[in-house]
Write a structure and sequence with these properties.
Layout: H1 12-20, H2 40-61, E1 70-74, H3 82-90, E2 93-98, H4 101-109, E3 115-117, H5 120-132, E4 138-142, H6 145-154, E5 161-162, H7 171-175, H8 183-192, H9 194-217, E6 221-222, H10 229-235, E7 241-242, E8 245-246, H11 251-260, E9 266-272, H12 277-297, H13 303-315, E10 327-332, H14 334-349, E11 357-361, E12 369-370, H15 388-399, E13 404-409, E14 419-427, H16 431-454, H17 458-470, H18 484-490
Parallel strand pairs: 1-2, 1-5, 2-4, 3-4, 5-6
Antiparallel strand pairs: 7-8, 9-10, 9-11, 11-14, 12-14, 13-14
Helix pairs in contact: 2-3, 2-11, 6-9, 8-9, 12-13, 12-14, 14-16, 15-16, 16-17
Bound molecules: nicotinamide-adenine-dinucleotide.
Length: 491
């Protein structure tokens, strides 16, 4: 476990104090689960997000799918650095601003961003040219993201998709750099005068939101990308509220929740313990085959997700995503995860794979995480502020056969804001592994589907009914749906 506190002692101040005393640490999520597979997971998640966001702008905003799409965001850091690479895979023009020149250069050297530009006028010209020529290209702008939002408004450059991936889960200790200070000045002020620094951050957030609002009034689709942007902007007093709700959705509310999590699609990942690239290539081929077989009889409403993931796994080798462990990620539902795992176990048993495989997933999933502003943000019955699901998931996984489980407070969106759990499962080709994988993966996904169905999420109700039809032993209470008019007329 990491950072588990008595709930009353889980504020940011408590964190600073107890971390300084050496009592606790900020565990983050995947790293805390001993299942870090490099940046591949975030590239995959961002690719799926951008692909689905493109479908949203076509369906809701009438965007012609043959026209180029411009995506603007910020951050070329640990996770955010995946944005330009995912933008290229998803076929858009992306502009990602980064205040730290070192971080930007690192991503450029790694080939994750195509072109670096540090002058806003040059950026403007380059983006106009790329759009006019229908090019797929990624630009890293070395500077503050507010420059981009404001300049593109002045120049009337239409931003189709907008987001932000500064580290706003940690706004005052280097996660967010305010405008009006150089990178060095900001670093000095946050140490020497934290109160003043905080007021700069809030002023900057108000200005960033004002610029974003101008673009969305012209038709930009803006979404929060899981970095607490909406939450921190509201705390800053920015014009981000619409009554008691945020003006903009989080990517989970609009994209990941309904398109993926409610159907059980989530980050299924594995590591080939032999460390051999040829084993990874074999597992890629096995997973592709399993998904292609399943797609033939899958319900129509999940075929798009299956197609996206088949395309992803087929292109995975060409995209050179492996850093360190011979690992892979894709999104699959309960059926897909179980079938792929069974096929891996069989391949280990018959010697096709030269060593065991470890399964896992990250927090960004159907069931493992209770996070009201991210993973569970599309659960609207009020239960988004409970953390029972994450706990049930970890306990349930452990006695259904996980090799290890972990549970954390605070990963990703901030200390005290989330509880998330993970697991690892070793497949060694044995019959026992076959038994465990079926039991555990089934629970690991359907626990969350049940919860999402109780909250009356349409796609989750569809999925849990499908699961119960296939397995007569599974009994999940279904919500009683009442016509909204009937309720409204009662009060
Ligand atoms: N959506 C997801 O799936 C997902 C996954 C992982 C992380 N996250 C969240 O995304 C955020 C970023 O994660 P990370 O690992 O990349 O963090 P990071 O700190 O490594 O990178 C953030 C980058 O933003 C830059 N930055 C800060 N303020 C800026 C500004 N005003 N203009 C331009 N650049 C600025 C920083 O210099 C830094 O390099 C975190 O809050 C994290 O929790 C989301």
């Amino acid at each position: 476990t990491n950072g588990m506190m008595i709930p009353n002692y889980s504020s940011l101040d408590d964190y600073d104090r107890h971390n300084a005393l050496g009592n606790t640490q900020y565990g983050q999520m995947t790293a805390g689960s001993y299942m870090y597979i490099g940046p591949q997971g975030i590239v995959h998640g961002t690719t799926i997000t951008i692909l689905n966001a493109k479908r949203i702008i076509t369906e809701r905003f009438g965007k012609n799918p043959d026209e180029p799409v411009l995506f603007v965001s910020s951050g070329l850091g640990g996770m955010s650095g995946a944005q330009p690479k995912a933008g290229n895979i998803a076929g858009v023009v992306s502009v990602v601003a980064e205040v730290n020149p070192k971080a930007a250069k690192k991503r450029h050297e790694q080939g994750w961003v195509d072109v670096l530009i540090d002058n806003i006028d040059d950026l403007t010209q380059a983006v106009k040219k790329a759009l006019a020529e229908h090019k797929v290209v990624s630009f890293g702008y070395i500077g503050n993201v507010i420059d981009v939002w404001e300049k593109f408004d002045e120049e009337n450059i239409k931003i189709d998709l907008g987001s932000d991936q500064t580290s706003l889960h940690n706004p005052f200790n280097g996660g967010y750099y305010p405008i009006g200070l150089s990178f060095e000045e900001a670093n000095e002020m946050m140490a020497a005068n934290p109160e003043q620094f905080k007021s700069y951050v809030y002023e900057s957030l108000r200005r960033q939101v004002a610029a974003i609002n101008k673009h969305t009034a012209k038709g930009t689709y803006f979404f929060d990308y899981g970095n607490a942007f909406l939450l921190e902007s509201s705390r800053a007093g920015a014009d981000i509220m619409n009554g008691d709700k945020f003006r903009y959705p989080s990517y989970v509310e609009d994209i990941m929740g309904p398109f993926c999590f409610d159907y059980g699609f989530g980050p299924f990942r594995w590591v080939c313990t032999s460390g051999k690239p040829e084993d990874l290539a074999k597992t890629d081929a096995i997973a592709t085959q399993v998904l292609e077989n399943l797609k033939q009889t899958a319900p129509k409403r999940i075929q798009q997700q299956m197609a996206d993931n088949i395309q992803w796994i087929k292109g995975a080798q060409d995209n050179h995503l492996v850093v360190g462990s011979q690992a892979r990620i894709l999104y699959a539902d309960a059926w897909g995860r179980i079938k792929i795992a069974e096929a891996f176990n069989e391949a280990i048993r018959n010697g096709e794979l030269s060593g065991p495989v470890v399964l896992g997933r990250d927090h960004h999933d159907v069931s493992g995480t209770d996070s009201p502003f991210r993973e569970t943000s599309n659960i609207y019955d009020g239960s988004m502020f409970t953390a029972d699901m994450a706990i049930q998931n970890v306990i349930g996984d452990s006695f259904r056969g996980a090799t290890w489980v972990s549970i954390h407070n605070g990963g990703g969106v901030g200390w005290g804001e989330v509880v998330n759990g993970g697991f690892g499962m070793l497949l060694d080709g044995s019959d026992d592994a076959d038994r465990r994988l079926k039991q555990m993966l089934y629970w690991d996904v359907n626990n969350g589907i049940a919860r999402r169905s109780w909250a009356r999420n349409d796609n989750a109700m569809f999925t849990i009914e499908r699961a119960m039809a296939e397995n007569p032993h599974l009994k999940v209470t279904k919500p009683n749906l009442v016509d909204d008019h009937l309720i409204d007329n009662l009060f």
